[in-house]
């Protein structure tokens, strides 16, 4: 079921501060404009790497899921990893059948790439918060990579 690594999520109190690491120290040159995703309670900025992306996420609003993490890690840190799957409902049902907890209602929500996503609880994933996202498709129905 597990597919391509789409991105690594990095929680930060400030995207501008975090960019000093990824752009200024590590030399990333392709930094996308930051944007708000109110439905997910985050502000997002993607940094391209040669074979994947870093997703910088900053809390947006009082209900942001990042507040607990940043209370434990005030300077931010690695928050989640995201893998593509061909069918999000099939992936969710398979993970549930294997005894994993899907966070929230379990209904997929639209993520930053415009495709449905779910999160699997870190207690079932060896301490790693895992995001699964449906593989982006082109207009012709082919994988958009
Ligand atoms: C940009 C949009 C989208 C995309 O398209 O890519 C995103 O990526 S949005 C990213 C932000 N959204 C989410 O994270 C949604 C899912 N997350 C949650 O529901 C919560 O954050 C959480 C995972 C349930 C954690 O909630 P929190 O209140 O912070 O902590 P708890 O006290 O409930 O913690 C329970 C347990 O889990 C450990 N934990 C928490 N966060 C992480 C983490 N990021 N990685 C690993 N482990 C984590 C926490 O330490 C607790 O452990 P124990 O103390 O051992 O119980
Ligand atoms: Co993500």
Automatic annotation (TrEMBL):
Q: Where is the VOC domain?
A: 4-135
Q: Which domain of life is it from?
A: Bacteria
Q: Which PROSITE patterns match?
A: VOC
Q: What is its EC number?
A: 5.1.99.1
Q: Which InterPro entries match?
A: Glyas_Bleomycin-R_OHBP_Dase (IPR029068), MeMalonyl-CoA_epimerase (IPR017515), MMCE/EMCE_epimerase (IPR051785), VOC_core (IPR037523)
- Select a single GO molecular function from the record's annotations and give it: methylmalonyl-CoA epimerase activity
Top enzyme class, one word, equals isomerase
Q: Is Isomerase tagged as a keyword?
A: yes
Q: Where are the transmembrane segments?
A: none
Keyword Nucleotidyltransferase carried by entry = no
Cite a single Pfam family from the UniProt record: Glyoxalase_4
Q: Which UniProt keywords apply?
A: Isomerase, Metal-binding
Q: Which family does it belong to?
A: Belongs to the methylmalonyl-CoA epimerase family.
Q: Which NCBIfam families match?
A: metmalonyl_epim
Protein name as annotated: Methylmalonyl-CoA epimerase
The source organism is Peiella sedimenti
């Amino acid at each position: 079921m597990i597919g391509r690594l789409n991105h690594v999520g990095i929680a930060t109190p400030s995207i501008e501060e975090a960019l000093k690491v990824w752009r200024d120290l590590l030399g990333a040159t392709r930094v996308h404009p930051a944007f708000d995703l109110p439905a997910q309670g985050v502000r997002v900025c993607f940094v391209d790497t040669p074979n994947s992306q870093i997703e910088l996420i900053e809390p947006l609003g009082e209900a942001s899921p990042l507040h607990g993490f940043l209370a434990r890690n005030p300077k931010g840190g690695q928050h989640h990893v995201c893998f593509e799957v061909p069918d999000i409902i099939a992936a969710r049902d398979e993970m549930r059948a294997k005894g994993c907890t899907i966070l929230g209602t379990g209904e997929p929500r639209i993520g930053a790439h415009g495709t449905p996503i779910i999160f699997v609880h870190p207690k079932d994933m060896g301490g790693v918060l895992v995001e699964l996202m449906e593989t982006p498709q082109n207009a012709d129905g082919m994988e958009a990579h």
